[in-house]
């Protein structure tokens, strides 16, 4: 029997994001580069950005004919310093985690944004690591910077494009057992991984600790969503929002290139998870428009909207 799908909506918000196409000699070294470049990037509550692997590419799809992956890096658009924040995230992550990874190279798959003037001069900045021996070149039909390194050369595009995106699409999976909630979430993550243009930035794609804005502690900007914690149901009494029979809740966060991409991934996740044994309910977090202005209804057929 399929789980109930609550007739509600996920409240997302706009982002500024960039993509980096990473290539390497083989999948092993590609995965090392991706894992390190997207580390500590689950939530912008205390991370500099939210990041993840959007898609893997076969050698025929990459500039240098090697295995590749497209990484996404998002910062909230409501940040006043959003362009600088995105620049700094890319600078630190590409220089410290891709340049250092054996055999890796970095390209921008967002050429149309560069042509439109929405770009970050990342190549020139990182090229200073070459200590004066760096040089510009034309390779694989692209203008690149080349940096001599101990392993040979590191190559990256001169400029990296950025554009407006979407952060915070979400689903909650309410299970009769902890395993049921986790199994549903795992199925959802696998479905989202097959969707183009989106990422699920939390560990393994899931957040087991959905938060609310604010806290009883004045120095915290976010804290545990007590009303939805199953173990607090007895203590909170009528204040608890956890339905009877629910023992655990898992959440997936979906960021992406646009509202259409995040919406498609949301429905794919619902379809993949809804028949999980022991799953009671699929719902989403929404905050009356206080967090974001992009809305995704959970019932297919209704149109997503933005304010």
Automatic annotation (TrEMBL):
<dbReference type="GO" id="GO:0030270">
    <property type="term" value="F:formylmethanofuran-tetrahydromethanopterin N-formyltransferase activity"/>
</dbReference>
<dbReference type="InterPro" id="IPR014053">
    <property type="entry name" value="ForMFR_H4MPT_ForTrfase"/>
</dbReference>
<feature type="domain" description="Formylmethanofuran: tetrahydromethanopterin formyltransferase Ftr C-terminal">
    <location>
        <begin position="152"/>
        <end position="297"/>
    </location>
</feature>
<dbReference type="GO" id="GO:0016787">
    <property type="term" value="F:hydrolase activity"/>
</dbReference>
<dbReference type="InterPro" id="IPR022667">
    <property type="entry name" value="ForMFR_H4MPT_ForTrfase_N"/>
</dbReference>
<dbReference type="InterPro" id="IPR002770">
    <property type="entry name" value="ForMFR_H4MPT_ForTrfase_C"/>
</dbReference>
<dbReference type="InterPro" id="IPR023447">
    <property type="entry name" value="ForMFR_H4MPT_ForTrfase_fd-like"/>
</dbReference>
<keyword id="KW-0012">Acyltransferase</keyword>
<comment type="similarity">
    <text>Belongs to the FTR family.</text>
</comment>
<keyword id="KW-0808">Transferase</keyword>
<protein>
    <submittedName>
        <fullName>Formyltransferase/hydrolase complex subunit D</fullName>
        <ecNumber>2.3.1.101</ecNumber>
    </submittedName>
</protein>
<feature type="domain" description="Formylmethanofuran: tetrahydromethanopterin formyltransferase Ftr N-terminal">
    <location>
        <begin position="3"/>
        <end position="149"/>
    </location>
</feature>
<keyword id="KW-0378">Hydrolase</keyword>
<dbReference type="Pfam" id="PF02741">
    <property type="entry name" value="FTR_C"/>
</dbReference>
<dbReference type="Pfam" id="PF01913">
    <property type="entry name" value="FTR"/>
</dbReference>
<dbReference type="GO" id="GO:0006730">
    <property type="term" value="P:one-carbon metabolic process"/>
</dbReference>
